[in-house]
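Sequence, structure tokens quoted for completeness.
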Amino acid sequence: MKLGRVTLHQIRLPLVHYFETSFGRTTERDIILVEVESEGVSGWGEVTASEHPFYSQEWTASAWIILRDYVAPRVLGREFQSAPEIAPLTAHIRDHYMARGGLEAAVWDLEARSAGVPLWKLIGGGSRREIPCGVSIGIHDTVPQLLDAIGRELAAGYQRIKIKIKPGWDVDVVRQVRERYASIPLMADANSAYNLAHADHLRLLDEFQLMMIEQPLGHDDIIDHAALQARLSTPLCLDESIRTARQAEQAIQMRACGIINVKLGRVGGFGEARRVHDLAAAAHIPVWCGGMLESGVGRAHNIALSTLPNFILPGDVSASRRYWQRDIIHPAVEVTPRGTIAIRDDPGFGYELDRDYIRHLTVRQESLV
């Protein structure tokens, strides 16, 4: 294959309901879609960077520049046999995993479509025909609103509930959730809102039998997480800290976590995601697929990733309608009443693009040859 064109599409997609974390409140998403073309076939990827550099150092505007000026020029016109050859071409670009991963994922989709096979098969997945689904619920204005939101998601069939926490919205909130929903699989995600001085306070969460506490400490920390994990009975899950397989290996060696959240964009694409998956599996550390408020393109990629065998915990891959009045793919992603998403066998990521709607949402576009 040879990439003859890379087209960047920035779309603006309003959320059905605001989503709030310790970083702030999001009401709409600015998303970069990466389209790669070879011999009349297109593959699509999604850059999962947020609008601001709060989750990581990447954001939508920076990703556009990195893709346009650094990533695309290094892959355009290059002959390659398979998608794993793409990531090494941009590996000398420091960080910027989401920008690089958006293009890398598009090439995997391109190869799968060219071969007429589903993406999950090309990446070595397929260990399950349905993936288990959890849901991530942001911070609400009041606890009763949060409790009602949890009830709606449970009624929709989701197998696991994740709630966002931050200082001032943590122990008492989790206690009230447990009083209402005593036995549901429940986890708390802090998005790096605490430091090691909060260890005694975080230990109060042990009484609530949480599945995990996700990324309570620094976004780039492993050492303090190891110290905190030694003081807690609740497993810690690392998210922001794990951007490479090497960092996953170090975290496992230091016993800094009992679970790893694998986000496709955060680790730079399918190649590195598979390496993190394999390392964790060898160490008997379960993984699950996290979400970044993706459109249908990124959601479809997450579904394929979640078919790898060590994705044994329900991920944040939920139905399109939880986030979007109208998604950019056909059909929209749906969750069964038992809280699963069925795997599709269509070539590539398995869904049709709603190109008319994408054009309607596009705020800027640039083709590179």
